[in-house]
UniProtKB/TrEMBL annotation:
PANTHER family recorded: FERROCHELATASE CHE1, SIROHYDROCHLORIN FERROCHELATASE, CHLOROPLASTIC
Entry keyword set: Lyase, Metal-binding
Superkingdom, taxonomy of origin: Bacteria
GO molecular function per UniProt: lyase activity; metal ion binding
The UniProt record lists the keyword Magnesium: no
Species lineage: Bacteria, Pseudomonadati, Pseudomonadota, Betaproteobacteria, Burkholderiales
Protein name: Cobalamin biosynthesis protein CbiX
Length: 123
């Protein structure tokens, strides 16, 4: 049986503080999945980038990676950039299964939580 990992994939920004909520999300997710490596990777402007993170996981024996785009929707980065990155990663790491799920912001439960937050802001 292979070793699975979860990579939260975010855009990245110039301000280091921008990563703080994503780091908290990574830590909260890791606490719920103690048997699964959970990491955070970025498209640009921050490290680690997705290719470096996948390479590190693969060199550590991980052979099944799920990438969770921590984006609100399926914009150009997820429609164009991420598929190209993943296609190259599959070439670079042929023994690693890489799956990408939908953008976190498009999940109905996430939308419900965000809606509740917005509604509660009026109280």
């Amino acid at each position: 049986m292979g070793t699975r990992a979860l990579v939260l994939f975010a855009h990245g920004a110039r301000a280091a503080s921008w990563a703080t909520p994503f780091e908290r999300l990574r830590d909260l997710t890791a606490a719920r999945l103690p048997q699964v490596p959970v990491s955070l990777a970025f498209l640009e402007l921050m490290e680690p980038r997705l290719p470096a993170e996948v390479a590190q996981l693969a060199s550590g024996g991980v052979d099944d990676i799920t990438v969770v785009p921590v984006f609100l929707g399926q914009g150009g980065h997820l429609l164009r950039d991420l598929p190209l990155l993943v296609a190259q990663l599959k070439i670079d790491h042929p023994g690693v299964a890489i799956k990408v799920v939908g953008a976190v912001g498009e999940d109905p439960a996430v939308l419900d939580a965000m809606t509740a937050y917005c509604v509660a802001s009026l109280t």
